[in-house]
Structure formats: C-alpha cells, structure tokens
Amino acid sequence: MNPDLMFEFKVDKENKTITVTREFDADLALVWECWTTPEILEQWIAPKPWRAETKTMDFREGGFWHYAMIGPKGEKHWSRYDYQKIEFQKNITELRAFSNEEGSVNPDFPRTNCSNDFKEKDGKTMVVVTAIYGNLEILEFMVKNGFMEGLSASLENLDAILKLKKGQESINSKPF
Amino acid sequence: MESRRDVFQAIADPTRRAIIALIALNAMTPNAIAENFDTSRQAISKHLRILTECELVKQEQQGREIYYSLEADKLKEVDQWLEQYRKIWEMKFNQLDDVLSKLKKSKK
Prior knowledge:
The complex is a heterodimer of chains A (176) and B (108). With 176 residues, chain A is α+β, with helices and mostly antiparallel strands. Helix content of chain A is 26%, strand content 39%. An eight-stranded antiparallel sheet of chain A has the order 1-2-8-7-6-5-4-3. In chain A, a hairpin with a 5-residue loop joins strand 4 and strand 5. Chain B is built from five helices and two strands. Chain B is rod-shaped and about 75 Å long. Chain B has helices spanning 7-12, 14-25, 30-34, 41-53, 72-107, and strands spanning 57-62, 65-70.
C-alpha cells in the first residue's frame, strides 16, 4: 500500500487485453520467488476473504499449477495454469483455465493467455502482467459469480487493515 | 453460456461502437443510422440485431417506424466489472507487498 509504488491497469476492450503494471519494493530474486513458490503464491494470489490452496505445482515449461480458490463458506473454484514458457527471472507465460478437482480443463470457458514480465531497477522490481482473454465475458463471471463475492465490503476495509498491519508486522508475521 | 451474446463482443466492433455513439444522443431509425455509414443497410441491421441481443440497445415502435436507443445501464455494467477487476488486482498486489516485506525481514 505504498503510494510511491507504481500501479497501472489498462484495458484494451477491442483486443480483449488487460495490462497490469506494478512496482514492488524488493529485488527481482525475491519477487520471482513469490511468483514461483506455491506456499508463497497462496499467501497473496487470492483476494481476501478468499484463499488459495495448491493441489500440485510443476514449475517448468509444459508443467502446470493446479490450485483452488476457497471462499469464506468453503466453496472451491479450481484453476489450472499451464506454463508455456519460462525465462528465469524474466518471463512466465501461462495459459490459465478453470478446471475441476481432477485438473481437467473446463471447456465452457475460454482460456486466458497471460504473460508476466519481470525487470529490476534500482532495487525495485517492475512486473507487467498482460492477459489476453478469449472473451471479456469471463471477467463478468469472475467478478459476479465467483471469487469476488463480498469483496467490495472487504476492499473498503483494506486500507485500514493494511495500515494496522504495518504497525504490527513483527507480531503477525510467521516465519517462512 | 456460449449461445448468449457477449457485451464485450458487441462493443469490440468499430461500426457497433459508432452506432452506440450515434444513438446515445437520440433514438434513431435504422435508415437514419445507416445514412451515417458507407456500409449497406443490411449490414447495419445485423449490427443492430447483435446490439439488441446483448441488450445494449432497445427498440421502440413509434407509428410505423422502429427507433433504436441506448441502454446506458448495460454499458455501465461493463465498466463496473472492469473496475471490480482492477480492484482485485490492486488487492492481490497489496497482499504481495505484505508478503515481500515479511520475506525481506526473515532473510535479513
């Protein structure tokens, strides 16, 4: 929640592309670790009050991450990210899909092609996520029916929570 | 799910976006709309049909003419999803800030 850190969200409706650019106050190695280690990914990838739980992860080209987003009532949405291309500490290109618990891709939804680019500058790391959606209707699904239930309310509290957390970091932090 | 028209698909086409811009100001008949384009009347009718199926425009019979006007709320919906989606990313990355700062501390 550092206001000095760049955040940009661009929508190109015509090309069904969303580009999210974000700067992180950490070196590239650490940011890369957060993107590629399931135990760490789980800590941030799900917007609260949802949480993520990994079933399997095989982080290599041709491998995939199979995980569930778990809602406050215990409801589960399974997803699968197939790694198409990995360039160490530079780029991860993945094909995102909804799946079932067994990892079979749900054919009712188009997949999302997502490219994550990483670059370090002056001790900070810039990440550019470029997501190309088969159709943007999938956003409607994600926002309306899935993950995001109850999100708006929790978002309003977020600033306050984060401020509080900063003060208590040493109390709340669990060792890795 | 597949058979239903997608609002984004509707607005992805430049002619349909131009139609939306036109009728946003005034309800118009298909003929009046078509006069603004080089394409055929049939092509405009097809675009209007797609826009109607997506509930982006509504039809009203006035006498012998059918007038098309914009369903502004539906268009707003699109931006609302996008705004929600933007917030989700913001939130995820704020969580990541938290994780990063913890990791940094534990590695010192």
